[in-house]
Amino acid sequence: MPTVILLDVSLSMSRPVPTTDIENHTRFTLATAAINTFLDYLCVHAKLEYVSLVTFSSVYEVAVPFTREFDNIRVKLPQLEEGDKTCIETALHGVNQIILNEWGYQTPVQIILVTDGSSGVGAIGRNRIIQALPLPPTYPGKIHVLPVVSPHDSSLQHAMPLYQKIVDLASNTTNNSNANLMRGAIYCPDQLNIPGVIAAMTRLCEQHYQEFWCTLKCGQLETRVQLFPAPQPASHEGLSASYTLSNQLHVIGFLQQQDLGTPIALSKHLVIPQAQVGSNSATRENYGSKTPTKEGSSTEGTTTEDDMSDPSKIPNFCVLLHGALKVEGMSAIVQLGSEWWGTLSAWCEVSRARRSCLLLSILRPGASAAPWLGPLDQLGPSEENSTSTDSFPVRSWRSYSGGGSGCAWARPHALLADVQKVLRHARKLPDKTQHLYKELNRLRRAAISLGFAELLTCVGSALERECTTLPTNAPPECALQLAHAAAALRDPRTAFDIKHTLQPLATNFTVTSMSH
Amino acid sequence: MFPTNHKTIFVLDHTPYFGISSDNPIDFDVSKSRGPGYVPLPPVCKSLWTCSVEAAVEYCRIVWDLFPEGKLVRFVVSDSSAHILNTWALTQQNLTHILNGLCLVGPVRRGAGGDVVGLCAAIEGLAEPSPTQSTRPPSERHFQNRGRIICITSARDDDSIRSLAEIALNTLVQQNKKAATPQPPTTTDASTTTQNLVVHYCHLVIINVTPEKADTRVNNQQLTEMGGGLMGVEVIVCRASALASLLGRLVLPHYRLAITTVTGIPMKEEQNASSSANYDVEIIHSAEAHAGLRATQTAQEATESVVLRWWTPRGAEGGAGGCSGPLWRVTPADVASRPSACLVNFLLNGRSVTLEMPRKGGGRSASHVLAAQGGELWIGALGGRTPYDDPPALSEGAGGRVTDYRIKEFGALMQQNKLHPLRGAGANARSRARLQRLTTYWPLTISSTLIFNLGSVMEPLTRLVVQESLTEDEVDTCRGVLLSLLGMESRHEFPAAQLPSNLRGKSSGRREEQWRQVWGELEALIRAHSGSPAHRALLRTLIECRSHNNHGAEGDSSRATVIRATTDSPLSPVGAGNGNGNNDVWAPRNVLDALLGAPRPPRRPDFAGRMAAGNRVATLYPHLQQDVETPH
C-alpha cells in the first residue's frame, strides 16, 4: 500500500532530548532515525512500495512526492525547515487531498503520523480537534501514530485520546468497495532515545509491512511467488464470512481472455517469482536427472553451478506461465481459498507495452464473481470423449425490458406505447391479424397481473371505434376480427382468465367472399 | 452479517377500498383527432390496487436486476386472508413468478378483510430463514436476522396507523419469544422442519395511499424506533399516481444505490437518419460507483444527481478491462423508454463507452466505463494510479534470463485444460486432478528434455501416454514407438539427428549418453502415468527395451526418486504388474532403490541362481558347459 509519512516539523519537535550521551538529540533527529529505519525495512521487504514525505506544522507541505527512490526521502530529511505549531487536522485534510489526487479512492493507503506526543492545545482545544478531524477518509486506509515522546510524559497522556480517535476513525472507512483493512495502531517508544524509536518503528513495520509469499501451483509444477501489494483479507457487509488468502494458489484451468472478460475484482497484485533457493535441488532432480550417467550430471554440473549463482538463469515456472498466457491470449483461474477464486493474466501497462508481468486479480469471494462464467465452482475440464459442452458466456436471463411488459406501465408513456402498438396493428388488418392478437394477449396478460380491468374495457372500445372508421373498401374480415377482439376483451367469463388465450376469429369467410 | 435489505416483504392491501379509482386519468388519444365523426375515448384511471402493484413490481425489477442473488423480496397480498405469492427460495425470486401469482390473485373483490392479516404473515415470513441463512448456524456471533416490510395500505388516521404498527410489534415480540425457546424434542428430530429465526430488527415502511383528490388524516412520520430498537417504523403519505416514483426513490437508500444521468448520447432518428439528436438516459447502480466523485465533492455538490457525459467511443477501446477496481451492475431507471433501449442494445452488442465528468474549465477526464459482459450491464470507475504500476521486469527476476522455455508446449497444455461451465459438484477438483496428471513429468525448458523435442519419432507415445487409460491398440502403438527407437539405437543413429536443425547443436554429448537420456526420460514419463494396467504393461515393455540395451542395469540413483511416489504408492494394486517388481527379476536393484522402495510381499521365490550368487551377478545355466562336456 502506498504510504504517506506525515512528519511533524513544529517548533516543539526541536526540543532537545534529555540524555546522558555526548550526542545531542532533538525529537526531530529521533524522528529522522525512525523514518530511516522504516525506509531501510522497505528496501529489504517492500522495494515496490510508494512512499511520500509530507511535513506539517500549522500548514502542510509535500516534501517528497510518492516515489520508490527512498534515498530522495533520506536526503530530504536533514534539509527540512522548522515550522510553528502542531496542527493535526489541517495536515490530515491536506493528506486526504494528496491521496485522492494521486491514488483515487480505491487504493488502500497507509499514513504514518510522526509527531511529538503533544496535541499543542488544552483539553477543550483537543476535543475541538477531535470534532474537526477530516475522518474517516473517503479512501480505504489506516493511520499509525508514532509519538516521539517518553512513555511517562504527561503530555502524551493528554494527547492519547486524540491519537486513539485518529486511529479508530481512519479504519472506519465509509468506502465499502474495498476489503476491511487491519486497523492502524499507536506505536509509543519504550524510552525516548534512538534505540527506543527504532524499536517502535520496527514493530510497526513488522506488523503492517509484511511481504506476502505463497506458492503458485499448477498441477505438479510450482514456484514460490511474492504478491505485491500484499493482499488483505476480504470481509465486508455483503459477505457472510471473512476470507483470508491461503498460502497456496492452485491453478484450476485456463480460459481465453475474451471469455473471461473482466470479473469483479477486489484488488490486483503483481506476481513476482522468487529464486528457488530451497527447492533448487528438487527442481534439478525433476528435470536434470534424466541424464542418468555420472558423466552426464558432471558435465551439467558446471552449468548448474553457474545457474545456482544467478537465479535468473534457473528455469522458473512463473516465467513460463507468463509467456504461455501471453502467447495464447489466455488467463488462468486460480483457487485462492475455499469459495474464493482469482485470475492470473499477463498484463502490461499501456505506456510500457514491452514490460509485461503476471497479474493476479483477486475476485469477490463466492462463486458468482463472474456470472458470465457460471458458478466458478462448477468450472471444469471438458470430458475427453464428450463434445457437447456449454460454452461461454453463460447467458443470464436478464432482458432489461421489465420482465416482458406491464411492469413499466407506472410511466404513462410506456402504457401509451403498448396501447398504440395494438391500435397500429388493428388499422392494418387483415395482414396483421396474428400480430394484433399476439399484442392483445400480451397486453391482457399484463393488465390481468396488475388488476387493470379498466384498460381492457378501454382497448375494447378503441377497437370498436376502429371498426366504425374502417374505409368502405376494407375487406369484411377486418370488421369481424375487430368486433370479435373487442367482444372478447369485455367478455366477463374469459377476459380476466389468465389461462384463456384470445384467438383470431376462425373463419373461412375470406375465401368464400373472394370466390363469389 | 445479513443486512436489513437481505429480506424485504411487500404487503399489498387488496381490500375493496383499493378497487377505487386513483382519479388520475390517462388519455390514450394523444394523437391528433382523425377527422370528423371520430369519437374520443374516455380517459382511463388506474385503481389504487393497480398503482400499488405496478410500483412494487418496479421496485423489485430494480432490485433483482442489480442483485441476482442475496437480496430477496417477497409479496404478501392481504384481504380476508394473507396470500403469500412466493417464498425465499431462489427459484421464486423473479418477476415472472410474482406476476403469475398476481394474475391468480386477480382484481379487488368485494368482501371484508384488511392489512393486518398480511402484515402478520409478513412478520412470520421474516422469521423464516433465507437459503443463505439456513446454511449458517444462527448461533454464529454476527448472525443478524433483519428485514424490511413495505406495507402499502390506506388508513383512516394516524391512530389506525399507530395501532397497525403496535400490532406488528406485538406479533414480532410474541414470535421472537417462540423462536427463542428451544423447540420441543418431538420436533427437533425431524430435520426437515425449519427452525424459525429470531428477528433482530424489522424496518416497517407504511405507505398510506390515497386517490388524487381525497383528503387524508394520516401524516408523514420519520423513522421511529419501537420496542427498544426491535422495530423502526416510518410512515409516508402518497398519492396513488406518485406511488411508483416514491418507491423508485425509496429503493435507492434501501440498497445504497445511486442514479447517474448519462447525457449527450447521440442517436439517429428513424425518420431523419442523416442527423442525430442527443438524449439522456438515467441508469441505476450501486452508490459505491460514485464514491470517487463524491470524495472530491463538497457536501452541497454531493446531494445533486450525477450527470456524466457520453464520450463517443473511438475504435476498439479497452472496455471494462481498464478498471482496476470492482464493477457494479447497472439497470436503466426507465426500461420502457426508447433511449434506454438504444443504450442497452448498444452495450449488449459488445460496445463499451467511457463516461466523462463535464468540467467547467474544459479539458476531459474519463470517470467511468459502461460495458456489457455475459448479457448484463456493468459500470466501473476509472482513474487513480495503481500501487502495482511500473512493475519490475520479469526478465530481471528469477528465471528471467532463461530463453528456452517450452512456451508453445505449455500453451498446448493450457488449451487442453480449458475450463468449461459444467453442472454439479467437483468440477474444480476434476480439473485440478487432470492438471496434476498432465504435469507429472513436464520439463520446463527445451534443453532439459530430449524426448519432447523428437517430434514425429516420439509423437503418438508422448501424446497417448498422458491419457488416463490406454486401449490395447494404443498400447501397441506405443510399443511400436519404443521398438522403432530400439531399432534406431541398434543402428547407431543419433537421437539428436531427429531434432529440428536449430536444436541439434544444443544437445551435444555422446551418442550413448543421448540414448541413455531418451530411455531415462521415457521411463520417467511412463512411470509418472503408470496408474492403469495398460500403462504398467507399457512400462514393462519399456524396461525390457532398456535392459535389452543394458541401460537399466546402470542403476541411476536419482532417477527413480521423484517418480517412485506415483508408482510405488501403497494404493497401487498389488500384483497388477508392478513395474519395479519386474525390474527385480530382470535386473538387480541397487542399494538406494532397495532402501527407498516400498516393501512388497514376495510374489515368488527368487531365482535359485541369484540366491546362491549373493551379491555377485548370477550365472545362468552354470551346469550347461558341464552337461555338454560330459557325454564326451
UniProtKB/TrEMBL annotation, chain A:
Q: List this protein's GO terms for biological process.
A: snRNA 3'-end processing
Q: Does the keyword Nucleus apply?
A: yes
Annotated spans, Disordered: 281-310
Query: Which Pfam families did the record assign?
Result: IntS14_b-barrel, IntS14_C, VWA_2
Q: What is its main location?
A: nucleus
Could you state one GO cellular component term attached to this entry? Answer: integrator complex
Residue ranges of domain VWFA in the record: 2-201
Q: Where is the signal peptide?
A: none
User: Does the record's keyword annotation contain Secreted?
Assistant: no
- Keywords in UniProt for this one? Nucleus
- Which stretches are tagged as biased composition: Polar residues? 281-290
Compartment(s): Nucleus
SUPFAM superfamilies per the record? vWA-like (SSF53300)
Q: Which domain of life is it from?
A: Eukaryota
Which InterPro entries does the UniProt entry name for this protein?
INTS14, IntS14_b-barrel, IntS14_C, VWF_A, vWFA_dom_sf
* Family to which this protein belongs: Belongs to the Integrator subunit 14 family.
Name of the protein this chain belongs to: Integrator complex subunit 14
- List the top taxonomic levels of the source: Eukaryota, Metazoa, Ecdysozoa, Arthropoda, Hexapoda
UniProtKB/TrEMBL annotation, chain B:
A Pfam family of this chain: Mat89Bb
Keywords, in A-Z order:
Cell cycle, Cell division, Coiled coil, Cytoplasm, Developmental protein, Differentiation, Meiosis, Mitosis, Nucleus, Spermatogenesis
Primary localization class, coarse: cytoplasm
Q: How does it assemble?
A: Belongs to the multiprotein complex Integrator, at least composed of IntS1, IntS2, IntS3, IntS4, omd/IntS5, IntS6, defl/IntS7, IntS8, IntS9, IntS10, IntS11, IntS12, asun/IntS13, IntS14 and IntS15. The core complex associates with protein phosphatase 2A subunits mts/PP2A and Pp2A-29B, to form the Integrator-PP2A (INTAC) complex.
Say which family it is in. Belongs to the Integrator subunit 13 family.
GO CC, any one term: integrator complex
Protein name as it appears in the record: Protein asunder
Name one process (GO BP) from the record: cell division
At the top level, the lineage of the source is Eukaryota
Listed PANTHER family: INTEGRATOR COMPLEX SUBUNIT 13 (PTHR12955:SF1), SARCOMA ANTIGEN NY-SAR-95-RELATED (PTHR12955)
Q: Which compartments does it reside in? A: Cytoplasm, Perinuclear region; Nucleus
TM region(s), chain numbering: none
